[in-house]
Design goal:
It comes from Ciconia maguari. It holds the Pfam family Talin_IBS2B. 83% of the residues lie in helices and 0% in strands. It is mainly alpha-helical and 244 residues long. It folds into two domains: 124 residues, Talin, central domain (A middle domain of Talin 1), CATH 1.20.1420; 94 residues, Talin, central domain (A middle domain of Talin 1), CATH 1.20.1420.10.
């Protein structure tokens, strides 16, 4: 029941995505209507996904987290898409903002597809761990793209904060190695959830610290380089666990 509702609402959201993209080249009224429609649809989708997560029962909290994370990714992608649509409104087809819009739309569709795959996998215990890991790998790749962009963070933090966040990577690495050894679905799902947060926190702290007023351009570039290298190394580890 929940799966059918999620599928139906997700399809409606994909249609809203198409309207948002085409709306950038049309009137402000059409764009506003598309934005409002997508906002209503994502609210409905979040509700049916939450009901689906609740139906799993409290004895499987890690899988519930996987589902909630999947809808959070879709909501974030929609927010970015609406922002990109506003930036591209009334601009010529070869304007850089149009390329950003197409990229945001692609991420949006990728995340909706990922959500649907996750919903399907939840019904099959044998594939839950694999799917959770695949979704986390995709999420980390998207976070890395944001990290590598020229966008300056809204706030800065101290280098100490960045160092503190690397501890989460150490813990997640140990968990990933253990999951690779045990191959138990619940261990793999827990690893996927922990990895997602650890890498995201590290990338955020690293970028914020690299833009601290006391940090030189050379040190900033080195910090951003090693943040990328750390993430790529961790992705390789997760790919190995997935292979196992």
């Amino acid at each position: 029941c929940y799966r059918e509702n999620i599928l139906k609402t997700a399809k409606a959201l994909v249609e809203d995505t198409k309207l948002l993209v085409s709306g950038a080249a049309s009137s402000q009224d059409k764009l506003a209507q598309a934005a409002q429609s997508s906002a209503n649809t994502i609210t409905q989708l979040a509700e049916v996904v939450k009901l689906g997560a609740a139906s799993l029962g409290s004895d499987d909290p890690e899988t519930q987290v996987v589902l909630i994370n999947a809808i959070k990714d879709v909501a974030k992608a929609l927010s970015d898409l609406i922002g990109a649509t506003k930036g591209a409104a009334s601009k010529p087809a070869d304007d850089p903002s149009m390329y950003q819009l197409k990229g945001a739309a692609k991420v949006m569709v990728t995340n909706v597809t990922s959500l649907l795959k996750t919903v399907k996998a939840v019904e099959d215990e044998a594939t839950r761990g694999t799917r959770a890991l695949e979704a986390t790998i995709e999420y980390i790749k998207q976070e890395l793209t944001v990290f590598q962009s020229s966008e300056v963070p809204e706030k800065t933090s101290s280098p100490e904060e960045s160092i503190r966040m690397t501890k989460g990577i150490t813990m997640a690495t140990a968990k990933a190695v253990a999951a690779g050894n045990s191959c138990r679905q619940e261990d793999v799902i827990a690893t996927a959830n922990l990895s997602r947060k650890a890498v995201s926190d590290m990338l955020t702290a690293c970028k914020q610290a690299s833009y601290h007023p006391d940090v030189s351009k050379e040190v900033r570039e080195r910090a951003l380089h090693f943040g990328t290298e750390c993430t790529l190394g961790y992705l390789e580890l997760l790919e190995h666990v997935l292979l196992v």
